[in-house]
Amino acid sequence: MASNAASHIKDIPHKLVFIAEDDLKSAVPDTFEYADKGDIPSHKSYIMNEVKNNELCAGINKEYLKDALDDALFILYIIKTTRPRTIEGVVIVKDHKDNESIYVDILCGSSNYKGVGSFLLDIVSDIAKKMNKKGVILSSLTQSVGFYIKKGFKFVDTCNMRLNLKGGKRSRRSTRRLRRRKGTRTV
Question: Fewer CB within 10 Å of terminal CB in the chain, N or C?
Fold first, then answer.
């Protein structure tokens, strides 16, 4: 999944950074630079400054962002390596209260490049699978709902959406029904 998403951001000269505790290091894709434990506070303050100075996460309360950074299970961000060096996308992920899913607290992508949000969401899904989580849950702004539906998310209540990562096996009956709809015969 992540390899398809990588084609979205190929036009950005970029560096990918992963911030988390050491126990998640094995889930990090090879393309990401893993932030050492001592560097985590400087990365978080860098993200705060970038968000304040740019319109990356427009409309997000700065105190909420600070709390989200402090409570994060892991953080991914994409930084442009050419001048001006700006963050083009950031995703902040927490552990969900059901312990079977992860919760995407904040997902911001730059409007300068298409596909940054998709890329980050695909990476989050891949990491969740490596962590043996069953789903990815998020809350969405009204204008972003269509994007998340296109990515496979479904509403679980009025404000939360979920992407199931582990699908069950289809029963023989549902497989036959599916084939009938497609117009192929079953034996």
Answer: C
Q: Looking at this protein, which amino acid is placed at residue 109?
A: G
Task: Report the C-alpha gap between 75 and 68 in whole angstroms.
Answer: 10
Angle of CA points 77, 13, 48, to nearest 5°: 30
> Half-sphere exposure (CA, 13 Å, Cβ side) for 153?
25
Strand partners, 170: none
Number of helical H runs and strand E runs in the chain: 6, 8
Q: What percent of the chain has pLDDT over 70?
A: 81
Q: What are phi and psi of 98, to 5 degrees?
A: -80, -5
Quickly count: other Cβ atoms within 10 Å of residue 90's Cβ.
Answer: 25
pLDDT band at 93 (very low <50, low <70, confident <90, very high): very high
Q: What amino acid is encoded at 9 in this protein? A: I
- Please name each of the domains of the chain with its CATH number: 2-182 (3.40.630.30)
Whether 91 and 75 have beta carbons less than 8 Å apart is answered as yes
Give the total residue count for the chain: 187
Quick one: average pLDDT of 147-160? 89
pLDDT tens-digit map of 26-85: 777 777 888 876 788 888 888 888 877 777 777 788 888 889 988 898 888 888 877 777
